[in-house]
Amino acid sequence: MNLQGKRVVIIGGSSGIGLATAKAAVSAGAKVIIAGRSVQKLKQAQVEIGGDVEISSLDLLHEDAVKMFFAAVGIIDYLVIPGSSVKTGAFRELETSDAQKSMDSKFWGAYLAAKYAQIHDQGSIVLFSGTLSHRPSPGYAVISAINAAVEALGRALALELAPVRVNVVSPGVVATPVYEGMSQEQREAFFQNTASKLPVKRIGIPEDIAATVLYLMNNGFTTGTVIGVDGGGLLI
Ligand SMILES: NC(=O)c1ccc[n+]([C@@H]2O[C@H](COP(=O)([O-])OP(=O)(O)OC[C@H]3O[C@@H](n4cnc5c(N)ncnc54)[C@H](OP(=O)(O)O)[C@@H]3O)[C@@H](O)[C@H]2O)c1
To answer: Which of 25, 152, 176, 231 makes an SS bond possible with 30, Cβ 3.0 to 4.6 Å?
Structure first.
């Protein structure tokens, strides 16, 4: 894939899926800006990525900051928004304020980034949902609702922001730092258990998702879609 001369902004590019996407985009020749809250994580990622990558501290929860960030960045070709932090928990036990903060981060964060980014007519936006939108699981109700909202937003923006293309990637379980809240033992058991049930007999790696994001950047005839990259997780 050739992204020579293209400008890519990845909000949440310092970790997991965003970091793998940044590496893939830089390898394809793009000029990449990664953004996130922690400057330390951004600096580490910058070293890990190497090549043509700039870093910028940004919290998607703050509308003014998002607006200023995109005004300073100017016109870009591609916007990728894996950045979010969410809290999960049993429906009656999760604090309502935590559920709302999760929505603020993953839904409203993506909404604000898409709203203020200035994207070239031939460019595109990639949003992130997750299989929980179609395959809910107890303890994750708010994430199911957020993912469904992101998917609906993606379809609506594919019309309203056209000719800019807007697509959503829906990952299954992917080994990223998002699971660092679990103990190593819990995490390994969860990954193994998930892998054993999936048709592909493994969980995802960030590069699986990054390859899909690059496909969506390059394919000028794909818009308004939700692409599942989940090892067949919706079939079981
Ligand atoms: N991994 C999975 O199994 C999985 C499954 C389904 C869906 N997904 C979705 O895929 C996307 C990427 O997930 P991941 O696993 O790669 O997550 P991750 O490793 O936790 O990375 C999240 C990234 O977002 C940044 N971020 C968090 N809150 C932010 C905010 N308010 N403003 C700006 N940046 C923020 C983080 O950096 P800072 O903390 O420094 O801000 C980090 O760079 C997410 O939307 C996630 O819900 C993942």
So the answer is: 25
Which residue's CA lies nearest to atom 19 of ligand 1?
16
Domain boundaries, the chain: 7-231
Question: pTM for this one?
Answer: 0.98
109 touches ligand 1 (CB under 6 Å): yes
In sequence order, the 6+-apart residues with CB closer than 8 A to the CB of 184 are none
Q: What is the pLDDT of residues 120-144, one digit of tens each?
A: 999 999 999 999 999 999 999 999 9
CATH of domain 7-231: 3.40.50.720
Residue 105: CB within 6 Å of ligand 1?
yes
Nearest-angstrom CA–CA distance, 94 and 212: 33
CA 195 to chain centre: 22
* Residue 179 CA, ligand 1 centroid: distance in Å: 10
Ligand 1, closest atom to CA 131?
6
- Does residue 228 line the site of ligand 1, with CB under 6 A? no
Q: How far apart are the first and last CA of the chain?
A: 33
